[in-house]
Write a structure and sequence with these properties.
heterodimer; A: about 110 residues; mainly beta; five-stranded mixed β-sheet; four-stranded antiparallel β-sheet; 9 strands; globular; B: about 120 residues; seven-stranded mixed β-sheet; about 0% helix
Chain lengths: ~110, ~120
C-alpha cells in the first residue's frame, strides 16, 4: 500500500475550520484515500473516504488534488470534541488491512 | 447497541500466563480485523478474517498468538505465555467486503492488556 505523510501536530481555534493535509504521492489508480480519527482512549473512528472527486458528509469534507498526490481533510467548524489524532490512509479497492502512520494530533483550543 | 464490542475491556496478567480476548462484530459484517496499539503509536495490523477464513496474518503475530473465528461471527484472540512486551491495546474492527466501493471499518473500544 502507498505511504502517507502528515504533519505531526496542528492547533486550531474552536469554531474555525481545521485543514489537515496529507501527502500520498505514490498512490495508485485504484487506491482510495481514507481518513480516520482516534480520540484519546477510544478506538479509531471512520470519517470519510474518496477516490478522485471531492467528498462531503456530516463530519467533514475531503479535497483531493487533481493529480491525487495529496488531499486535505476539512472540519468546517472545529469543536473541542474534535481534538484527536487524525490518520490519512491509502487503501485499495478490495479493502483489507489499514496501515496507520503516526497521524496528525489536532488540538482544538477555546 | 449494534456496534463492535470487545471483552474484557481491561486485563492485567502476570508474565507467562495465557489470556484470551473476545470480539463481537456488527452482525452483518463478514470481515473482522485485529490490531494492536502501543502508547504513542498508531494501530498495527495483526490479522483479519473474511467469514471463517483467516485471510492474512502479520509477521507481528508470533507463534504465541492465535486468532479464531469459528462460525464467522465472533472472534477470539489468544496470547500464550504472555510477555511484558505484549502490553498494549488490542483493537477489533469489522466491515463489509465490497468489490469496488468503500471499506469502512468500525472499531470496538479495545481491550487494554497489562502484563506484569
Amino acid at each position: 500500500d502507498a505511504k502517507t505523510t502528515q504533519p505531526t501536530s496542528m492547533d486550531c481555534a474552536e469554531g474555525r475550520a481545521a485543514n489537515l493535509p496529507c501527502n500520498h504521492s505514490t498512490i495508485s489508480g485504484n487506491e482510495y484515500v481514507y481518513w480516520y480519527r482516534q480520540i484519546h482512549s477510544q478506538g479509531p473512528q471512520y470519517i470519510i473516504h474518496g477516490l478522485k472527486n471531492n467528498e462531503t458528509n456530516e463530519m467533514a469534507s475531503l479535497i483531493i488534488t487533481e493529480d491525487r498526490k495529496s488531499s486535505t481533510l476539512i472540519l468546517p467548524h472545529a469543536t473541542l470534541r474534535d481534538t484527536a489524532v487524525y490518520y490519512c490512509i491509502v487503501l485499495g479497492d478490495q479493502g483489507g488491512k489499514l496501515i496507520f502512520g503516526q497521524g496528525t494530533e489536532l488540538s482544538v483550543k477555546p | 447497541d449494534t456496534g463492535v464490542s470487545q471483552n474484557p475491556r481491561h486485563k492485567i496478567t502476570k508474565r507467562g500466563q495465557n489470556v484470551t480476548f473476545r470480539c463481537d462484530p456488527i452482525s452483518e459484517h463478514n470481515r473482522l480485523y485485529w490490531y494492536r496499539q502501543t502508547l504513542g503509536q498508531g494501530p498495527e495490523f495483526l490479522t483479519y478474517f473474511q467469514n471463517e477464513a483467516q485471510l492474512e496474518k502479520s509477521r507481528l503475530l508470533s507463534d504465541r498468538f492465535s486468532a479464531e473465528r469459528p462460525k464467522g461471527s465472533f472472534s477470539t484472540l489468544e496470547i500464550q505465555r504472555t510477555e511484558q512486551g505484549d502490553s498494549a491495546m488490542y483493537l477489533c474492527a469489522s466491515s463489509l467486503a465490497f468489490g469496488l466501493a468503500g471499506n469502512e471499518q468500525f472499531f470496538g473500544p479495545g481491550t487494554r492488556l497489562t502484563v506484569l
